[in-house]
């Protein structure tokens, strides 16, 4: 009887986790070809994952602003931002590590400014894809 209850509980718990909770890492998404589509990447000659990576780099460079208070205090360092492109194609910041809080705020601002896009899809269902991006702040001379 205990074995039957255990098997039943395991089966029941397996069904309670639907595919709505799936979050793939960038590497897994790239392997499976289900990367979110950055605006205008659908018309690119690059693969969707290559275009996404290039657009993300360009976005960070174009939106980067060294915080004035960080300049005046001589702050520098690397901030790592973990975020997802959710099932609706919007960015959600999950975790921020490293650097001073002023640098972290700027890194979060840059990532939150990522435009809405077509989400990654598992079959026909949209899923969230997780990314980890380091942003290095080097005090200008």
List key phrases describing it.
single chain; about 140 residues; alpha+beta; five-stranded mixed sheet; 5 strands; elongated; disordered N terminus
Structure in words:
The chain has 141 residues and is of the alpha+beta class. It has 5 helices and 5 strands; from the N terminus they run H-E-H-H-H-E-E-H-E-E. It has helices spanning 2-16, 26-32, 48-63, 68-72, 101-112, and strands spanning 23-25, 77-85, 91-97, 120-122, 125-137. Strands 1, 2, 3, 4 and 5 form a 5-stranded mixed sheet that branches. A hairpin with a 2-residue loop joins strand 4 and strand 5 (125-137). The radius of gyration is 19 Å and the shape is elongated. The termini are far apart.
User: How many strands appear in the DSSP assignment?
Assistant: 5
- Please work out how many helical segments DSSP would assign: 5
Q: From N to C, what is the helix and strand string? A: HEHHHEEHEE
Estimated helix fraction: 25-40%
Low-confidence stretches: 1-20
Mean pLDDT level: 82
* Beta-strand residue percentage: 15-25%
Most strands sheet: 5 strands, mixed
Topology, please?
Elements: H1 2-16, E1 23-25, H2 26-32, H3 48-63, H4 68-72, E2 77-85, E3 91-97, H5 101-112, E4 120-122, E5 125-137
Parallel strand pairs: 1-5
Antiparallel strand pairs: 2-3, 2-5, 4-5
Quickly describe the structure.
By secondary structure, the chain is an alpha+beta fold. The protein contains five helices and five strands; from the N terminus they run αβαααββαββ. The protein is elongated and about 50 Å long.
